[in-house]
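@channel anyone free to eyeball this complex?
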Amino acid sequence: MNILEAVAENLKTRNPTWRYPEESVEWTLSEIDMQAKAYAMRLEALAVKKGDRVGLLLDNCAEYAPLLLGAWRLNAIAVPLRPKPGKYFDLAEYLCTVHDICKFQTIIVAADADPITVDRCSQAFGISFIFLSEIFVNMNIPMAGNEVTCNVVGTSILPGDTAIIQFSSGTTGSPKGAVVTHAMMIAQLEQINRGVASGCNGSIVTSSASWLPFNHDMGLFIGLLNPLFAGSDNLLASPRYYMFKPHRWFQMMHKYETTLHFTTNTALSGSFKSLSKLDPGSLNLSQLYVYIGAEKVMPAVVRSAYRILGAFGMGKRNLRIGYGMAENTLGAASTNKKEISIRNFIISEDGSIQLASTASSATTEVVAIGEPHTGTRITIRDDKENELPELRLGQINIESPCVMGGYYQNIAATQNSLVGRRLKTGDMGFFYDKEFYYHSRKDDLLVIGGKNIVPDEIEAQVETIPFVRPTCAVLVGVNEPSKNEMQLRLLVEVKLPLKTMFGLEHRKQIQQKVFESSGLLIQSIQACEIGSVEKTSSGKKRRKIIAQRLARDEINMVN
Amino acid sequence: MIYTEEKNTLRELTKLCKQEGILEPDNVPGFENEDLVDSGVIDSMGLLSLQSMIEEYYDVLIPQELFIMELRSLTSIAAYLDTYKSSKNQKQRFGIA
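replying in thread with the prediction:
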């Protein structure tokens, strides 16, 4: 089976509704399918054929799903791209790098795309960028009644054909494209639905909701592909629409009886204040299953979610953790127990771990990322690739039908990440009582004076201080050549009025908070301009890049 | 009188810190008023060393948090030690344990 066949199969039995409240659009699956046919004809007229790369430089929008299906009807390869520049994210440079790797046949852009970037890239690549608003200009779509009569029925898709290249903006700064075949896509979608059925009390996905960016693996699979595959109703928006009023989103999920929603630790944490404004009786979220993924999940966020979402009838059983990455198509593990396991461990410098019965200054509280999905094998390995037993810290490795064959046109990166079909994730973790625990990114882990420091944990503490906004603190290690050692530097993004006042008293409070929770004294704490704590499209902090900018003195500090 | 005592404690404290390797031997004059955390002199380990040294030489255990929130320079630590000594002397004079 491929995704086009899954859609055709679903259309025989149901015609689910897809809603885009941001655009005031409601389409049935059959309408989406009809538009997909029209897009297929348009792309064919643009000479797109099997194996061609079609870039999608678009924010979350209603046209995304039909465009993907349209491209696949031609057996072309969809390449979702980060659509907007950032303070430190040069979109044109990113596009040039990605084009060098995968040589686009065409790129479809939003009507409001930055014209300078479009012009610059269009000239450099020697290809036309097609504006979404102009895609059907001067084109007659053959219609029979209300139906598009499409003669593009799809070049036959083989399981090993490439469906998507998932480009990460990359913590190292150089984008790498994970190749996802149609077989991997279907294997992942089957895993998601089996995982939901198993982890969510036999629940099936009848109504899904997502605001995650479609150019990110979780947004693409949960927002678009799984609803197409499962034939569920779907509620979609952009990250901006969600973050503006998170409580509005939960009201909509109540209204449309959403059963499945994926979010991130940061987004959920940032939504609690907005949700607390609602009258508990105004929402019934008892049917909703919420998965938290894409980032390290903090115990405090799980507890707050139990309390705040629990007030709307969502049981503890309905909160789940998901773990995965684009290199494994998406998910590899998720919560399968009745409740998310949160335990205290003593993690020694040599990587040995002990379960602690109570919390103390020597313990670290860690949230379990769950059990491997059926058909997935997860192992913890040392630097020599040896498998480690339970309660030993090592690199998380994944073997599954969803593991990529490699990065597109990047042999060196592929060789670094794959041993045969086993994926070395670059994540550090351990195994205990049938579940896996994520500790840190291997690249992010800081070792100072023999002590392992996990930046996420320190930042989470700092972000509980009232004057520090969620996601606005970052801890990095910067090499100090004069001292021949690494120095910890904590940056806090500030805006007015704090921008003009940030000083010793604020630094002291941060130092005190970090010291209380971790016994660590951070000497260098600086306030910086908004946008300095750079993030990936999924909201992960780009610590390596931030550290490089700090070392080069490229961050705009305040005060 | 207090001024002189403070000066003496400060001088003694500075000397001890240099002796114990907490401060560099060539710290410039005026350094006594510098913020020890901001200037990078005291890190997590340095904090522990400073606390242990003061406990050993002055028989007073200063909570580490106090070094972070208040006693951030040698001058402020010396003043704290003087206040502590003077309050201890008074208690002894009035027979309070």
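from a first look: The helical segments of chain B are 2-19, 44-58, 64-69, 74-93.
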